[in-house]
Amino acid sequence: MGIVKVIEVIAHSEISFDDAVKQAVSEASKTVRNIDSVYVKDMKCHVKDGQITTYGVICKVSFRVD
Question: What Pfam families does the annotation carry (predicted)?
């Protein structure tokens, strides 16, 4: 039986929510191996002068422990 660990990662993008999730996985994978899944826990936007400036996500990243 394998062990799965979950960490919480916060990421942002100036492009989209999708890109923010990709950034979260990309950054986490630099130091974490065996990533299995990502659960988007929360999403938010920053707004300036009536325009969205950044998209933010809080993700739970699951990975298998060796």
Answer: Dodecin
pTM given for the model: 0.88
CATH at residue 59: 3.30.1660.10
Q: In the 8-state DSSP scheme, what is residue 14?
A: S
Q: Residue 25's closest CA among 15, 13, 54, 14?
A: 13
Contact 10, 56 (CB under 8 A): yes
Confidence of residue 1 (pLDDT cuts 50, 70, 90): low
- Total structural domains within the chain: 1
- Domain span at residue 45 reads 3-65
